[in-house]
Amino acid sequence: MDTLTEIISACGSAIVAGRFGVVMWHLNRQDKDREEKAKQTQRQLDQVLANTEKLKAHDDVIMNLSEALKEVMTATDQNSEGVKALMRYLLQRYHATYMIRGFITSHEKQEYLEAYEVYRSKGGNGTGESWKREVDTLPVRDDVPVVNPYIELLKNGKGE
Questions:
Q1: pLDDT single digits (tens) 102-141
Q2: Which of 84, 102, 99, 101 lies closest to 132, judged by CA?
Q3: Which residues sit opposite 140 in a β-bridge?
Q4: Of 140, 144, 145, 135, nearest in space to 97 by CA
Q5: By C-alpha distance, which of 101, 100, 95 is closest to 136?
Q6: Residues near 81 by Cβ (< 8 Å), separated by ≥ 6?
Q7: 128 CB neighbour count, 10 Å cutoff
């Protein structure tokens, strides 16, 4: 029995050593997995930080573009008001010319209507509308040569 006891003792030690080896292999494997997961987590964190920096840079660009857009909008509004003032002057001048002359050509009427539409689209008021109504009442004459009164005044030396 001594031999049997020795064999069982020897096998038990080998089984314990084998199980211990398997446990150690699993523990080492888990350590490697944890290290790999930690590295992967760090890579993801680094990517998030890099993306955050990119987004911050994009936010700065968007803010700059927003400010530039506000400036463009202000300039556009001011330009629009200038165009409206110029169109009002043009309509007033044309209106006076046509009313003094007593008729309008079809070409002049088309130009007047185009100018009026620009003036109206820029927020022009009722004065331009009343001038348009008066111009609309004028007879259209394409059979009479048109003389520009302002050029005639300049030719005669009265425009100085």
A1: 999 999 999 999 999 999 998 888 888 999 999 999 999 9
A2: 99
A3: 104
A4: 135
A5: 95
A6: 122
A7: 20
The β-bridge partners of 85 are none
Tokens encoding 153 = 């005044």
Tokens 């331009």, located at residue: 128
What tokens does 23 get? Answer: 């446990």
Assigned token pair, 39 = 């590295």
Q: What is the pLDDT of residues 139-149, one digit of tens each?
A: 999 998 887 76
Burial class (CB in 10 A: 0-12, 13-18, 19+), 103: middle
Tokens read off for 16: 């314990």
Cβ-proximal residues to 118 (8 Å cutoff; 6+ apart), any chain: 83, 87
Does the pTM surpass 0.70? The reply is: no
Amino acid at 159: G
Angle at 76 between CA 73 and CA 77, to 5 degrees: 85
Residues 48, 42: Cα–Cα separation, whole Å: 10
